[in-house]
Each structure stands twice: as C-alpha cells, then as structure tokens.
Amino acid sequence: MTGHRRHWAGSMVTRTTILIALGVLAVLTFFPFYIMVIEATHTSKEILTTPPPLGPGVHAMDNYSSVIKVIPFWRNFANSVIISGSITVLTLFFCSLGGYAFAVYQFPLKRFLFATLLGTMMLPWLVNLIPWFIIVTRLHWLNSFLSLIIPSAVNAFGVFWMRQYVTSHVPLELLDAARIDGCPEGLIFFRIVVPIIGPALAALAIMNFLPNWNSFFYPLLVLVKKQVMTLPLVLNLLRGDPYRGMDYGVLMTATTMALAPVMIVFWLAARRFISGMTAGAIKG
Amino acid sequence: MKIPRNQIGKYATAYVYVAPFFLLFLVFGLFPILYSLFLSFTYWKGFGKPVFVAFDNYKALFQDQTFYKALYNTAFIWIVAHLIILPGGFIIAYLLNTEYVTRKNFFQAVFFTPLVTSTIAVSLVFSILFGEQFGVLNFFLERIGLQPVPWFHGDGRWIKPVIILLFSWRWIGWNMVIYFAGMQGIDNELYECAAVEGANKLQILGRITVPLMKPVILYTLVLSFIGGIQIFDEPFILTGGGAGYMGGTNQAGLTLAVQLYEIGFRTGNMGTASALAYTLMAIIGALSAFSIRMFAGQRRTRT
User: Fold this and answer.
1) How far is B237 from chain A (nearest CA, A)?
2) How far apart are CA B28 and CA A133, in angstroms?
3) Among B1, B78, B118, the residue to mutate for chain A (most A Cβ within 10 A)
4) SS3 for A19?
5) CB-CB under 8 Å, A22 with B95
6) Counting one residue from A and one from B, how many pairs have CB atoms under 8 Å apart?
7) Which CATH fold would you assign to the domain A71-240?
8) Complex-level ipTM
9) Judging by beta carbons within 10 Å of its beta carbon (0-12, 13-18, 19+), is residue B278 exposed, middle or buried?
10) What is the mean pLDDT of each successive set of 10 residues along chain A, which is 284 residues long?
C-alpha cells in the first residue's frame, strides 16, 4: 500500500516537472510576440527608456496612423494575398493534374519524366536565382507579380504529393466505370477525381501558401516600388526608412499587423495547419 | 505496332496534364541551371556580352577570405542550431508523448507558432529584443547583475549566437512535430514488453525510442540541410537589412546566401555570384549524397 502511494507521489512530481518545463518553454516561445505587441502600443520615446515597457501602453492608434502614412500597408497586404493566392490556386490545379497523370496513365517516357521530376526536388534554389532574375528582367517583369507567380505555378513536390495521394485513394475501376458511362477522358479528372482528393489539396494549399506569403529573397530582387511590395518587403523598407526606421513603436505596429492575420488563422485550425505543413515530411 | 485510337487519346491527355511542370522547369529550372554554369565562367555585369574568363571566377572566389568566412559562418550557424533543435525537438516530443501531458495538441500548436510567421517580421522583433542600450534582454541581464551584451557590435562575436537563437526558436517546433508523429507510430506493445521485462524509462528511451527514431532523425537532418545552408532572411535583417556593410560587424553574420546577394545584386558581378552558387550546389550535392547513403544504410540494417 505504501509502495503504491510512493509511486503515485513520484508520478505527481514527474508530472509537475514536465508540465512546468513545457510551460516555461511555451512562455519563452511566446515572449517575442508579447514584446512585439506591447511595443506596438508605445511611442518610441517610451520604448527607449530604462526600464523598457513590459505592459500595454495607449499609443496603438497613433502608431497605426503613422504606419499607414509611411507605407501603403493595406495595399501591400493585398499584394501578398494576390501573389500567394494565385500561386496556391495555380499550384493546386497543375500539380493535381500532373500527379493524376503520373498515377493513372501509362505513357512513353513516363519513368524518365517521373525520375526527372523527383531529381529536381534536390536542386537548391540559390542556383537558379541569378538566371531567374535575368529572365524576369528580359520579360520586363520587374515590379510585376508575374515574376513570382509564373515560375511557382507548379512545383515538383506538389506533383509528387498528388501522385501519391491519387495512387492510394482513387480506385482505377472507378475511372473505368466513368469511361464506360461515356464520360470524356478530359472530364474524368474534374468529375471523378477532384471530389476525392480534397484532403490532399487542402494540405498542398497550406504547404504552398505560407512559404510564399512569408517569402522574402525573390520578391526583394524584383519588387522595388513601394506600391507593389509584399508585406515582408515593406516591413524591411519601413525599417530602412531614415525617419521612421528608428521608431520601434511604429515598426512593431506594422509587424504586428503583418503577423496577426496568419497567427489567427493558424490558431483557428492549428491541427490542420500542422499536419498540412509537415505532411510532406512525415509521409514523404 | 498499331496503337489503338483511344490509347493515343490517353497519351495526349497524360502529356497535356504533365506538360505544365516540364515546360516551367525547362524555362525556370533547367535553362537557368545551365546558364548559371555558363555565367560562372564569364565576366558579366548584367548588361552587354558576357566575357569568357575560364576559371577566374572560381579562382577569385577561392582566394577570397570573405568566402571562407561566409562558409565558416554558415556551417557554424547550421551545426550549432541543429545541436539545439534536433535534441531539443526530440526532448519536447518525448515529454509531450508521456502519459503525463494531456493537452498534446495545444502544446504542439504553441511550439509550432513561430513557423507560420514571416522570418522578416520575427527578425525585426528579435533585432529590437536584442537592442543594445534599451533592449529587453539587456535590461533583464542588468537586472540579474550581468553586463549588457553588445549583441551586434563590439567585435561581432554575439551576432552568430543571436542568429542561432532566432533560427532555433523558429525551427524547434518543426522537428518536435515530426518526432512526435514518429513516436506515435511506435508500437505500444514494445514499451509494454520492455516494462514487463523490468526496463526503466531511460533504458526504454535509449534502447527502443531512439533506435526506432533514427531514420526519422536522419531524414530531418537531410531535409533541413538543404534549407539551412541557404539561410538568408535572418542574417540579412539582423545585420542591417541590406544597409551598411554585408554581414554586420566583422562580417560575423555573413552567410553564403548573403554573400551571393552582395556579389550578384549589389556589386552586380553575376559571373562570380554564379560561381558561388555552383560551389554551393557542389557542397550540397556532396553532403546530401553522403547523408542519403547513411540514410539508405540505416534502412538496410533495419530490415
């Protein structure tokens, strides 16, 4: 009996220790976000004092009006939505078509083409950075969203991902049945396959939207006008602004405004996001 | 051989469906890669005709101390960050996987949150957290009686630790989620058998969990290698966001990707930048091949 109780007490200690450790780590994870939001409610003068403010202030609205005076924030926000949204829609369309073809059809050179596709996944993006830049310059795509959307309209991983899903979830008999019923070859995908592959499309959408939403290096090279910049670019621009760049209150307000939507959407559907973003890594 | 008519129709459909990827790959993938190789043997400022200079770009690169500095910085940041996020992610996943923690989904979401945020935004937050005179971190350091740290100045020795901290903070959740999924996949019977045989928690961890997780661990290593060696956003923002000299004080934050940006787009020397890109690709290729070998070896010994 006493042994049992001692075991119980021991597990209580372990349990508490583990929960405290995880709690501390959770607080550390959120601390930068906390400071970001706190500084967004203070003036630069308040922030640059000792001790620095650790609780909320009253200047959020002043900071907000400074942000939209210096940068066209909502325009930049819309740009980010348009670019990542277009890439995501195109990617879903082309990757699922390609993946479906690799999963279902037999055609000459199929093995070679598929091996090529897999091989391209190993290429580091830095290698085609410079020629990509030259191509989009020649196409007069500087300051145009096309320079970012078109090259990303379909990617190897997405095709591979959809092929795996179609292979394991779409029975070939179903497609044959549709053919016998007289469904034209070109419509089988849209009528029969698309309704089945919803979950894979959702995961692929998350996998593509977020990296493009947060992308910085490529847009930095082509989007140089304030009006066409995406959120990460305009944040960097604001930081470099000779008058406002040192105004941490304004800078953190813009940063909070840029981060909040993504974080809210993430927390509304965290399970789905996490499985979507790691799906490729876990099942791939 | 006569191919039936509907077969041709199927071929055509299949080719049309796979065409978008291969067309875009030809234009924005294969052509750039070959063109990069060509450019790496030329002197070219972005306009006019590229002048063939054979191996001069590579020679210049390998004689440039800055290149070795960038290589060293990149490797240092990558290695130390992974010494934190691989074991760290593993430990958090292990703790989450114990029967003591009930709100597993909540904690996963907490540690995953930094990953959905923009590197630029969080780099800006970190650059303010680590402010030298009025930063929150130095304030706490002074409170507990320590000297404030010149994070970005002095001799630059603190720049890499700040980048590593930011990188680890951002990526530890990623590894945690993958390890957690791997641990969930381990058959409970194995644990029960071991417990019946009288193994304690540590023995079970060392003899069952870690060995079974080895392929997953190696996999995360390969995955993050290709991304990690190209680290750009964090050092770029933390060392000034393109203003001032590249890489911050003593170029302590100069990574290979930042150097590529500097050479290619600020100096405008496309030839040398291409040579750097190719050198990088060779390094990535060699190290990936090596780790895939290890990975494949693991698989073979397991079956």
Assistant:
1) 8
2) 10
3) B118
4) helix
5) yes
6) 263
7) MetI-like fold (1.10.3720)
8) 0.89
9) buried
10) 58 89 95 95 87 89 92 96 97 95 92 91 81 90 95 93 92 90 87 91 91 93 94 92 79 94 92 82 57
